[in-house]
Amino acid sequence: MKQNLVATPAAAEHLGGLKPNTLEIWRIQGVGPKYVKVGRLVRYRLEDLDAYLQAQTRSSTTQAPLKGDH
User: Fold this and answer.
1) CA-to-CA distance for 22 and 26, rounded, in angstroms?
2) Which residues fall within 8 angstroms of residue 66, CB to CB, at 6 or more apart?
3) Which of 41, 49, 52, 65 has its CA 20 to 30 A from that of 7?
């Protein structure tokens, strides 16, 4: 099964143009999208990035984020 894996800069762009450093900080904090470690490399599955974006969808500014959201 082939996975669509992308590096941190491409993942940051996929999430709307975040800085790659933001994803690095989120990994340290344990928040943000799921990621995969391949040896020393960090990669993101496109479906995990899309799932993260879906989880960030809100209908109101007063709606509380889900636990683990950032």
Assistant:
1) 6
2) 55
3) 65
| Gap between the Cα atoms of 44 and 68, Å rounded | 17
What is the model's pLDDT at position 3?
72
Residues across the chain: 70
Half-sphere exposure of 45 (CA within 13 A, CB side): 12
Q: Which residues touch 32 (CB under 8 Å, ≥6 apart)?
A: 23, 26, 52, 70
Residue 19 makes CB contacts below 8 A (sequence gap 6+) with 12
Q: In terms of pTM, does the model score above 0.85?
A: no
The domains of the chain are located at 5-55
| Cα angle value 13/15/17 (rounded, 5°) | 40
Cα gap 3→47, rounded to integer Å: 9
